[in-house]
Amino acid sequence: MDTPEERAVQYFKTGYNCAESVLKAVAEAIGTDIGNPQRFATAFGGGIARQGYTCGCLTGAAMAVGMLAGRTAPDDLAGKDRVYASVVRLFGKFKAQAGAVDCREISDLKFDQLTHLNVCCPLVGFAARIACEEIERSLA
Questions:
Q1: Least buried of 51, 83, 119, 128, by fewest C-beta within 10 Å?
Q2: Using the 8-state DSSP alphabet, how is residue 37 labeled?
Q3: Cα–Cα distance, 93 to 97 (Å, whole number)
Q4: Angle, CA 24 vertex, CA 18 and CA 26 arms, to 5°
């Protein structure tokens, strides 16, 4: 497992949900002192608890950007704006790749093995990659 993209896909294939896989892989790639970061993302799999809303790949990526490049003080308005801009770019790139941002439109809420392999795995990897790119851009 070399790249965040590969790590995220591997985590997904071993049983973590989409949001957990993206957040865990990105946190490990960029580095954080938060233990078990995937715990923050557990409820977001399947478009928030399999409800079909915003894809867990995307929410995991957004959490990773906030966790690793977000502000630490309420008066850091520039930091908030920087992270918001990064997440807006994430949404745009993800929608261009997946055709939608909601899980129900991407996967038809099919959480079977075939859908996971053919639809979700590539998006898990893609989301991890673009999250890392946005974090690096934010921290530059």
A1: 51
A2: G
A3: 6
A4: 100
Residues in CB range of 2: below 8 A, 6 or more apart: none
Q: Count Cβ atoms below 10 Å from residue 78 Cβ, excluding itself.
A: 9
Average pLDDT, the chain: 92
Q: What is the pTM of this model?
A: 0.93
DSSP string, 83-103: HHHHHHHHHHHHHHHHS-SBH
Maximum Cα–Cα distance for the chain, whole Å? 47
Beta bridge partners of 102: 54
Query: What is the pLDDT at residue 1?
Result: 57
Give residue-wise pLDDT tens across range 85-121: 999 999 999 999 999 999 999 988 788 777 777 889 9
Q: Give domain limits for the chain.
A: 4-139
The answer to whether the CB of 19 falls within 8 A of the CB of 44 is: yes
Instruction: Report the distance separating Cα 1 and Cα 75, nearest Å.
Output: 39
